[in-house]
């Protein structure tokens, strides 16, 4: 495990101390938890952005599905005649 120094604003330090005391954990533990969750969220956001750009590129290339086909597919869910997901024509 490595050591990193960070300067905290006074109000952040107070909240951190209160959370650590309430959880009966060290401030370091709380910081590690918070940073782990933040990093995971950032990675998810980065992946969503990548997928958005890929979807926009696909749409620009005409790889789209008619909205009516999508609605018919969704309406078939849970029925005896459930359909396969529609595919783009390209």
UniProtKB/TrEMBL annotation:
GO BP annotations listed: regulation of DNA-templated transcription
The residue stretches assigned to a coiled coil in this entry are none
Q: Which spans are transmembrane here? A: none
Gene3D superfamilies on file: Met repressor-like (1.10.1220.10)
Cited CDD domains: RHH_CopAso-like (cd22233)
Query: Which Pfam families has this protein been placed in?
Result: RHH_1 (PF01402)
Q: Which InterPro entries match?
A: Arc_rbn_hlx_hlx, CopG, Non-func_TypeII_TA_Antitoxin, Ribbon_hlx_hlx
Domain (Ribbon-helix-helix protein CopG) ranges: 3-42
Highest taxon of source: Bacteria
* Name of this chain's protein: CopG family transcriptional regulator
Tell me which species this is from.
Answer: Saccharospirillum salsuginis
What does the record give as the organism's lineage? Bacteria, Pseudomonadati, Pseudomonadota, Gammaproteobacteria, Oceanospirillales
């Amino acid at each position: 495990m490595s050591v990193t120094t960070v300067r905290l604003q006074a109000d952040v330090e107070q909240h951190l101390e209160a959370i650590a005391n309430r959880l009966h954990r060290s401030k370091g533990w709380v910081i590690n938890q918070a940073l782990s969750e933040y990093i995971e969220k950032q990675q998810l956001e980065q992946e969503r952005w990548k997928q958005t750009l890929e979807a926009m590129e696909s749409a620009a290339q005409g790889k789209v599905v008619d909205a009516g086909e999508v609605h018919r597919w969704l309406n078939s869910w849970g029925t005896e005649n459930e359909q396969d997901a529609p595919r783009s024509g390209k």
